Description:
By secondary structure, the chain is an all-alpha fold.
Amino acid sequence: MNEQKDLVRQHIRGSSLLLLGRLFALLMNFGVQVLVIRYLVKAEFGAFAYAIAAVSLCSSCVLLGLNRAVNRFVPIYLEKGDHARAVGTILLAVANCVGLGLALVVLVFGLQDFLGSHVIQSDGASDGTPLPLSLLLILIALSPLEALDNVFQGLLAVFASPRAIFFRRHILTPCLRLGSVLTVMAVSGSVHLLATLYLIAGLIGTTAYVLVLFRILRNRGLFSDFKKEPPRVSPREIYAFSLPMLTTEAFLVLKTSLAVLLLEFYKDSAAVAEFRAVVPVAGLTLVVLQSLKMLYTPTASRLYAREDVDGINTLYWQSASWVALMSFPVFVVCVLFHEPITVLLFGEQYAGAGLVLAVLAVGNYINAALGMNTYTLQVYARVRTVATNSVIAALLGLGLNLWLIPIHGALGAAWATSGAIVVHNLLNQAGLHFGTGVDVLRMQGLRVYGSILLVTLGLVVLHTSFELPLVALVILVVFAFLILLRINRKELNIANAFPEIAKVPGFRFLLAMERGR
């Protein structure tokens, strides 16, 4: 039992470091996003966003779900002392990303005439090539690099190295991108120069991952084991797990990339810009979830290898409570202040994107608050359930996008995206009930969700009934958040995860913690 608590505590504390890093990265990326949108004209930003979305979709195809396979199988092999299979799985994933990635780059260059005449609707540049296509031809080389990044990030999580993830993902990458944007602005460069610098930044980031992982694997002695016993791999076992997971990866990318691709097809780059500009803002509601998920799968996999069902239940619902409560302030701000935030960040030309932001924020928050159901199903190897749910949600999202985008443009894309996200999570939650030993809803979760719902309704009533100034509303949101922390302090189990908080008088009073607890 103590070992179980230590694993859960280590997961929460390590994830908290990643959360701090993600917050720093978000501030940096947010600044980059605002600079890019304000520097480029609306059509140029839409074309750039289209190319980035296409690259994300391609990298997901290259990955074939192997990042999730690495996250599950490598910690299980290490727990059992089977280092040969652990190394073999790593080598298989890397070789897959490099080989398929290079093949995809060649394919895109070979199909550029078809893409320019049948897929992309924007006007051509001076050389006759549509701007989104010319940017895609530069950025497509990021596909294998992003696929490798996902595999390497998973490996760092397996080896419990949140500090390495913190530096590479949350410090180095945002700084490189900020440097790229500032360089373009300093020399009054074009959007093509920005795409080229983004590609160089991706190459530097992947190289940094390789160096960090080489040092970790050497210190763990896996290279010496490699000399004693050659790596062994079971491709059939790995791909039998990873290929169905490709549907999940595809859904995660399609939920925004599909909307971007269809907006370009049915509308134009300006519509793409209006939708894509607010996606990162709405994505702030997923920050806590994305920080905790990095270490969640390896921790849950170790508990699964020990057949500790109660431990997985505890890990799942404590993580879900943290995500729901810590994401609450961002969710409320995005919903209540959607138009002022959009205008403040991106200017009056993006005023119409405010409702898009609110709709996306609601879908993302429901996704975050329901917890890491997808990753738990993967730990239990319920690949058929995961694949089926992802396919259903993806088809629903496709149908809704095809229906709503031609009529409502960016707002229709937001409704379609959020609808698919909510349905996907409800299906996964049902999968937990029928396919694992994890409770579909514990009293702990019921108390957390109930209190959040009541506080949210109260804020909405106050916002719609009284014309309160912005400062007063912000104070109310902060006060509501503190109330939620106080009410749900036992569900968060803060005293176990962060006992040092008891030494801070204000927090000790707020959370009713005892000194030295």
